[in-house]
Amino acid sequence: MPYPETLDAKPKIIFFTDFDGTITLKDNNLGFGEQLRKKGNLDTLNGKITFRYVPLALALGTPLSDSNLRRRDSFWEMMESVKTPFPECIKLLCENIKLDPYFKDFYQWSRNNKVPVIVLSSGMTPIIRSLLVHLLGQEAEEIEIVSNEVVDKAGKTKDQEDGWQLKYHDDSGYGHDKSLTIRPYAKHFADRPNDPRPTMLYAGDGVSDLSAARETDLLFAKKGHGEWLLKLRLLLAVEFQMLIQHRSHNLL
User: Fold this and answer.
1) What is the dihedral of CA 44, 234, 175, 135, to 10 degrees?
2) φ and ψ at 87, to 5 degrees?
3) Which regions of the chain are under pLDDT 50?
4) Which of the residues 20, 73, 177, 205 is marked catalytic?
5) Alpha carbon separation from 133 to 89, 104, 113, 188 (Å, rounded)
6) Mean per-residue pLDDT of the chain
7) What is the DSSP-derived secondary structure letter of residue 146?
């Protein structure tokens, strides 16, 4: 349920979360492999490339070559390395991706306590929805997902070899600037200082979470993967196995 409908039930907590490697045990967006994905993350943090290509060169009137595109856009290159038809990608992921062992219990707890769970992902909505329904059941249809989309390539369809491509959520350097979903909530309560304000939480594990990590009251950095967030000293980072181990009734 998108903003502002999320606030109709007057939740005391709103839980924003990354998906790949946070809710799941592994990142399903590895594309050309884990080692090159890690290198791309490090190059992004060190300013060598952007997570998503933004055509600054075009704005400056500088010719843009294919090599420049590949050098600057780590995520697009990774996704373009996948040539498998999209339905087969979903099938393979459903067969191989597993949830964090605590998430199912946490999600049931969140439903029982009317805590909205909002997935903010640099992945792709149809993949995330399929995985959640496969792993949690039809009740996962209730989870709001804000992510990138998938479209047919010119002259092809998604069920063909090399027939699909990413459609970014927005024009930011993240491809999906997750902070854009969170900020309206903060503004809502800044404009209504007398209204009870929910505690806003964020959980993540990688460079695509950097924009969102500044926006909430508390950041949970996935154990073993949170160095991307910790390195930039964003908020208070709390390592976690999963939020169910840290849930506190005094927040409700």
Assistant:
1) 110
2) -60, -35
3) 53-72, 232-237, 239-244, 246-249
4) 20
5) 16, 12, 21, 31
6) 79
7) E
Q: How many C-beta atoms lie closer than 10 Å to residue 105's C-beta?
A: 14
Q: Which two tokens stand for residue 56?
A: 């600054």
What are the helix (H) ranges across the chain? 34-45, 56-59, 66-72, 74-80, 86-96, 103-112, 125-136, 179-190, 210-213, 227-230
Dump the DSSP string for 25-61. SS-S--TT-HHHHHHHHHHHHTTSSBSS---HHHHTT
Helix axes 86-96, 125-136, angle to 10 degrees: 40
Active site residue: 18, 177, 205, 209, which one? 18
Residue entry with tokens 């039930």: 9
20 carries an active-site annotation: yes
pLDDT of res. 69: 43
- Residues 159 and 154: their CA atoms lie apart, in Å, by 13
| Token duo for residue 225 | 């993967």
